Inverse folding.
């Protein structure tokens, strides 16, 4: 295949921005920030993907979805590469993605609040009974409470709103 | 990459990687045994997610171990086709789950070590080790935050929860020391700058643990007795039962997939 007939990388990024995350379908894989690079290696399209969490069970499905979507757009040869470093961070989640999450009922990550294992500060924070302030995605109230560090998936925590009383998921900063 | 391979004995590096991967594999399997049995739904989910992170990390560590060994064994082959004596996990992670308090105390004592170890490994001279650690340490920070939080809440909770947490601490304490004892393989990877000397991690671990135990109103046992052997393949009888459960399918139906 001559280079001139290959789709442009902008076009490829556009296609990938339409592939939904299998666990949170309102987000695309591009919104999530896990597609790190696309490039042509001769007539093979190389897509570099980084896992969110190392045990994320969606990884296999994500790879399959990427391949299937690109094949559907006429890209016959696709090679997926895994990249561990630098590790995925919610900082890479697009502003658009964060808004989509909130509208879907999941509180988006509060930046710079990733757990860092400094438990001295942690123990004091816990002793004071305070929680990280996560606004309720439904009513916007800041009066919310953490129920559990882990929610329906490893990337989320369980919260409840003390104002509208609804439970909700919070996409943790990592 | 090549320089790290040359600088350290391949067997010592394999030993180190299986110690990392077997710890997360066996603890991940133990924690997964709670699935559907935890005291409340939120904790059931939290335990399953913690187990998932640990199994994910196992795939990275044992995957690299297989690559370093160069005998064609992948992470699955190492997890499912080795016998107990070939496992290098510490004895702490094979302790039975007991009640929820015992599971949490084991998790907390491990998480504190794990986070300190992974933080040190992010500076490993072997970039393959450093990048796995950089990924895993972010997950371990959340594990430590959760287990510290719950140890404090239950320790400084009701009379019943306090008594159970103290008993759990008394039960688990003598299984931790093994993590800080160095042997030849540890010294070889430490000399190559691949991993820290295990003993060097103790002060930081103690700082984390004593801070949390103080908030939890729990007292660390004074006995210095240490159960050891897991890191060189000498295990308690509990590991055999874990493996019988975990490895059954691949042993009974070799190569089965779905």
């Amino acid at each position: 295949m001559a280079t001139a007939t290959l789709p442009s990388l902008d076009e490829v990024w556009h296609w990938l921005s339409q592939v939904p995350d299998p666990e949170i379908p309102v987000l695309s894989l591009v919104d999530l920030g896990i597609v790190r690079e696309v490039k042509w290696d001769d007539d093979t399209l190389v897509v570099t993907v980084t896992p969110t969490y190392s045990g994320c069970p969606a990884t296999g499905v994500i790879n399959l979805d990427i391949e299937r979507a690109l094949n559907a757009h006429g890209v016959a040869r696709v090679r997926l590469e895994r990249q561990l470093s630098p590790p995925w961070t919610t900082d890479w989640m697009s502003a658009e993605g964060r808004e989509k999450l909130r509208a879907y009922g999941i509180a988006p990550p509060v930046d710079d609040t990733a757990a860092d294992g400094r438990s001295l500060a942690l123990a004091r924070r816990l002793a004071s009974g305070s929680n990280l302030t996560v606004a309720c995605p439904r009513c916007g109230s800041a009066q919310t409470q953490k129920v559990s560090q882990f929610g329906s998936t490893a990337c989320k925590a369980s919260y409840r709103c003390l104002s509208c009383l609804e439970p909700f998921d919070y996409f943790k900063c990592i | 990459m090549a320089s790290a391979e040359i600088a350290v004995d391949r067997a010592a590096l394999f030993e180190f990687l299986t110690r990392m991967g077997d710890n997360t594999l066996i603890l991940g399997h133990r924690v997964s045994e709670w699935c559907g049995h935890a005291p409340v739904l939120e904790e059931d989910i939290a335990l399953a997610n913690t187990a998932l992170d640990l199994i994910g990390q196992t795939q990275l560590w044992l995957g690299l171990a297989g690559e370093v060994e160069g005998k064609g064994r992948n992470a699955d082959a190492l997890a499912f086709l080795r016998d107990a004596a070939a496992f290098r996990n510490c004895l702490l992670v094979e302790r039975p789950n007991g009640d929820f308090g015992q599971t949490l105390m084991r998790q907390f004592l491990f998480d504190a070590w794990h986070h300190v170890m992974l933080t040190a490994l992010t500076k490993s001279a072997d970039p393959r080790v450093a990048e796995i650690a950089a990924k895993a340490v972010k997950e371990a920070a959340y594990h430590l935050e959760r287990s510290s939080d719950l140890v404090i809440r239950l320790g400084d909770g009701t009379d019943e929860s306090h008594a159970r947490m103290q008993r759990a601490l008394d039960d688990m304490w003598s299984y931790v020391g093994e993590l800080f004892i160095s042997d030849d393989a540890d010294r070889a990877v430490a000399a190559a700058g691949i991993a820290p000397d295990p003993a060097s991690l103790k002060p930081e671990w103690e700082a984390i643990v004593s801070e949390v135990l103080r908030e939890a109103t729990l007292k660390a046992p004074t006995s210095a007795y240490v159960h050891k052997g897991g890191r060189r393949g000498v295990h308690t009888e509990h590991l055999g039962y874990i493996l019988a459960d975990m490895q059954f399918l691949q042993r009974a139906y070799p190569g089965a997939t779905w």
